[in-house]
Amino acid sequence: MARLTSARPDRGGAHPGGPKPGRRSALLALSAACCPGISWAAGCRPLLDHRFPDLLTGQDVPLCRFAGRVLLVVNTASHCGFTRQYEQLEAVHRRYASRGLVVMGFPSNDFGQQEPGSSREIADFCKANFGVSFQMFERMPVSGRSANPFHAQLAQRTGQSPRWNFHKYLVDRRAEAVRSFETQIRPDDSRVLREIDRMLAEPASA
Fold it and tell me: What distances in angstroms separate CA 168 from CA 8, 29, 80, 102, one per listed residue?
């Protein structure tokens, strides 16, 4: 069972294990200098206030780490007719990562039991067959009452919950606007790429 936890900001808005207040301003300034166009807010947007275990390491990854970036969130499966979309996801990742896009894969066994493997098996399959290098998390539910809290919020905001593997959500830099794309729409479809370009062109803060 995947470990799902929600990050809880302290009184100052920082997460446990984060930089101390005295160092935070310096780190924010350094981030601004290194990554122009990306705003690193002091607090974490509610939509990103979660942590999930990394597929390879099992270490919790705070989604707030990706604040200020555009997110392409996809529930994946290794034994599905749409599994070759991994190839397109990797191509989109390589094309847009330097501009601020983060592709996130959430393996799930929700649909047709098409992701039965262990974390190591899933990771090896993705690497060997599609050279996946984007962010992947451990297997977890993405739909219904058991959905992880991130997907539950995405479904609530769009009115669309995944109905099959490789459903896609696009989240803007402010973690406010969310677009939903059905399984049949490929990651490199012109409609998806057009929306990615539009979101990347927007500022990270209003």
Answer: 27, 33, 15, 13
Other beta carbons less than 10 A from residue 131's beta carbon: 12
Q: Does pLDDT of 87 surpass 70?
A: yes
Q: 1-38 as b/e, with b when 16 or more CB fall inside 10 Å?
A: ebebeebeeeeeebbeebeeeeebeeeeeeeeeeeeeb
Query: Which residue has 């994946």 as its token pair?
Result: 76
Dist CA 147 CA 50 (whole Å): 13
Contacts of residue 203, defined as CB under 8 A and 6 or more positions apart, other chains included, come to 37, 39, 173
Q: How far is CA 179 from CA 38, 166, 167, in A?
A: 20, 14, 11
Q: How confident is the model at residue 206 (pLDDT cuts 50, 70, 90)?
A: low
Quickly state the pLDDT bin for 39 (edges 50, 70, 90).
very low
Calpha distance 16→91 (Å, rounded): 34
Active site residues: 80
Give the global pTM.
Answer: 0.80
Confidence of residue 98 (pLDDT cuts 50, 70, 90): very high
Secondary structure E strands in 64-195: 70-76, 101-107, 135-136, 168-171, 178-181
Whole-angstrom distance, CA of residue 46 vs CA of residue 9: 10
